From TrEMBL:
The keyword Transmembrane applies. It is found in: Membrane. It is a multi-pass membrane protein. Its main location: membrane. The chain crosses the membrane at residues 176-194, 261-280. It comes from Chrysotila carterae (Marine alga). Coiled coil: none annotated. One of its GO terms (molecular function) is carboxylic acid transmembrane transporter activity. InterPro entries: MFS (IPR011701), MFS_trans_sf (IPR036259). Residues 24-88 are annotated as: Disordered. Residues 35-53 have a biased composition (Low complexity). This is Major facilitator superfamily (MFS) profile domain-containing protein. Keywords: Membrane, Transmembrane, Transmembrane helix.
Length: 293
């Protein structure tokens, strides 16, 4: 007899036949390999209608909005980026022309001119007297101390550096400068009046004691009085102008007919430097570095 099967009844037999075929093709494979073979015999899932083979694209994160619907910038851990429309405050005086413009503006111009003048007087007086002191004692007939007087002068300088540690903090930069300028002037005129070797040696040591205190406070005051943006420029210009005074005083000792006249000018320069220090208004001792225009 011929038996007819409906299509719905034939489908289970077809699936069983496909499974048996996969088992016969790979009898030694494990169950996982057999399942993969059966899956390969069935139609692919992507071929079924209504399914897409492309992966969904991730959506960008939604930006935060305030109550009025305006976008709000998210906070960042790093510093804000500088733009051309809003330059940073510290980069305003980066060029040489801009620094000169700041130095020639307002109270800084007065401070800068005063610093240059004081530095010039200090270099003129100290360098001239230091270079010509050996020649001066030789012309007095005291050739045997023409070299030892330099050692006494250096000893006074070392002692001045040590004393300055407490003196400048106790009196302040400006008062220390005034005191030491006037003292150096008085001791230099006393040096001109002395004639014996011991007195000349002691006066040279005492005078250089005060001179080195002036140098220490001058360097410190110039570094503290000017704003950060022009500090190095102002310091360099002031000391550069001051060094020209050393050149003039060195040449002056060999031009004048008598060294007594040159030493009198050196003493006058010390006195003038003390008077100029009276014009300093900003005391920097015990205060933080100035950083204002």
């Amino acid at each position: 007899p011929i038996i007819f099967f409906a299509p719905a009844q034939v489908r289970p037999f077809q699936q069983a036949a496909q499974y048996a075929t996969a088992r016969e093709c790979s009898p030694r494979q494990d169950e996982r390999t057999t399942a993969l073979a059966c899956a390969a015999a069935s139609p692919p899932l992507s071929a079924s209608p209504g399914l897409s083979s492309r992966r969904p694209r991730p959506s960008p994160p939604a930006s935060a909005h305030d109550s009025h619907g305006r976008a709000v910038e998210e906070e960042s851990d790093g510093p804000p980026l500088a733009t051309d429309d809003a330059p940073s405050q510290t980069a305003r005086y980066t060029t040489w022309r801009a620094k000169l413009a700041q130095l020639t503006h307002g109270s800084l111009l007065r401070l800068h001119l005063l610093s240059c003048s004081v530095a010039w007087c200090l270099n003129f007086a100290s360098k001239g007297s230091e270079i010509w002191v050996g020649v001066y004692v030789e012309r007095l007939g005291l050739r045997h101390i023409s070299r030892s007087i330099y050692f006494f002068s250096l000893g006074g300088k070392v002692l001045g550096d040590l004393v300055n540690v407490k003196l400048s903090e106790r009196l302040g930069r400006i008062r220390t400068l005034q005191l030491c300028f006037i003292s150096s002037s008085a001791l230099l005129f006393c040096f001109l009046a002395a004639s014996s070797a011991p007195s000349l040696l002691l006066l040279a040591a005492a005078q250089n004691f005060f001179v080195d205190i002036i140098w220490c406070n001058m360097y410190t005051y110039l570094a503290e009085a000017f704003p950060t943006s022009v500090r190095s420029s102002a310091f360099g210009i002031s000391m550069g102008v001051g060094r020209s005074g050393a050149v003039v005083s060195t040449a002056l000792g060999g031009v004048l007919p008598a060294l007594e006249v040159a030493f009198a000018l050196y003493g006058g320069a010390f006195f003038l430097g003390g008077l100029l220090c009276l014009c300093f208004k900003l005391e920097t001792s015990g205060r933080s570095l100035a950083d204002v225009v």
